[in-house]
Amino acid sequence: MEEEKGKRVHSPEFRVEIAEKMLAGGNVSALAEEFDLPRSMMYRWRDPYRADGPAGLKRRRGRPPGIGTLPRKKGTVWSGPLE
Length: 83
Description:
Elements: H1 12-23, H2 28-35, H3 39-52
């Protein structure tokens, strides 16, 4: 059975390995082909790793802290301005 690309989960160790290879001067296109990853994803791993080390690659789930939600009442529809 073939794994769907959009459903893959990469371990923090794997993300660190990719980020380190990129920072060591590895060819990003070659790494992307070798590991079957989008380059954009690899850059999203490299940047936080560069800033915070392995801690920057901890999986973040859900809504970021400090972002609230609008209160809703059952049966109401947002009637605010459309931008």
